[in-house]
Amino acid sequence: MERICTTCNGTFLIHADEAAFVQKMVFTFGKKTFTPPLPVQCPDCRLKIRTCHRNEQYLYKVRSAFSGKDIVSINNEKPVGPKGDPSGGEPFKIYEQDEWRSDGWDPLSYGRDFDAARPFFEQFAQLQKDVPRMALISLGNENSGFSTGTAYCKNCYLINSSENCEDCYYGKLLQKCSDSMDCSYLYNSQLCYECFSVYDSYNCQWVSFSINCRDCYFSSNLTGCSNCCLCTNLNHKEYHFMNESLSKEEYEKRLTEFRGSVSRIEQMKELRKKRMQSMVRKYANIVNCQDCTGDYLENGKSCKDCYDVNESQDCRYVTVGVNVKDNYDCSNMYLKPELCYQTLGTIEVYGCAFCLFVFHSQRLLYCDYCFNCSDCFACCGLTRKKFCIFNKQYSQEEYEALVPKIIAQMEKNKEWGLYFPSTFSPFGYNESLASEYFPLSQEEAKKQGFHWREKDARDYKPQTYTLPDSIDATPDSVTQEILACAACTKNYRVIPQELAYYRKHTLPVPHKCPECRHVERMKLRNPRKLWKRECSKCKKELQSTYSPDRPEVIACEECYLKEVF
Known about the structure:
globular; 31% strand; nine-stranded parallel beta sheet; 565 residues
């Protein structure tokens, strides 16, 4: 079935499995049942609108609305929307995590009646502004106060979307890692630096799309390799330089040529870029999957157009998920979420739709920041509650009578079936996850109805120190200096643990800020979008994240394996 997107006016398809899934999303209220309508926005617009409500990496110093003390938060005190406009003009109330979890306040005290004369989303946006939110989203961390979206991490700094890590700095999606810095999509690895999509590896630097490697540098697509530099598409090799086998002595001599200097490292990065451009690429990063399309998929079955998803089945349009089952149009779904639709940010939920940050809950609709709840509609900030609407407690009979009336009003206003509008996000587009998935200029973002976070002049002071080219010439006092990014001029600092790491591994202090380093790593991955391609070797038809106008040589799995083995 083909439709026109109501947001971008582009055409998109509704697949048969999509229509069948929506019919499985049955919400029962007494004798009345409801299923979500088929989507009226294309998959890209749905993902963009959903992820504009998530900030993963930008932290701000704010004042707790509970205690008045200074805390670190993902929310800026300055709103991004027009003053007085509930769509973004009022700041959120922010509590420190322990304050938010305490008995010092009652989320039901913010309860209110639904007003049938006003749009649903307008009323819910005001509830979001009134009910306090946690400064950061984390669980069970130790000495990791500048991290969000993390759990059970120790001594970590400015990492996000990560679990079970120790002594890691500046990273995204790190799982069971230690002593690693400036890495993204790193799993079960130690002593890694500037690595991207690397698994089960040790002491690697500037390595991407590799598994089970040790002591490798400036390389890509390696499996089971050690002591390899500037290599691509190698399998179980040792002491290789630019895919050439060398003696241990000759290899180590070559290796010393780039150590410790920014200028030498930049030269090596350019060589790596050229080698990666000429290498044969597998059509997608899909491992041990059946009937799956997308990228970065592992151990999956019937996952279509999904990205960064593992151990999952029967999904479509899911971005970032672990143990996901029967989820459509969802993002950042963890630990067995099942039968969810148009939802972002969950841990172990069932039967939820149009929700944002709901954990250990069941049968929630249009809820935000709700934990250990069930059968709630349009609630925010609740814990262990049931049969609530707009944070007001009802009996089961009252709940089942009122929710259908609200849905009927939403249907009349053409709100039912839509996600929270982008205009109600507290984040500027440029500080949200959406900007990573779909980069836009300020003009483009505002034209599409998103907010924009303007630069803060306080983040662009003149630097007090000029970094040397070599780590050997960098003094201890650099940790007291204000540095300016060589790319965007934004200020950044070097913490003592970071400096010790650079010295231990003979690495120069980066001349770019953590944000620009992150953006540079993200350029290594393709957009979350599929195109029809042919294998360059056997001409088999493929669905790939490499667009047809790109120059890379793309191979199906069978032809790619012939290349690397």
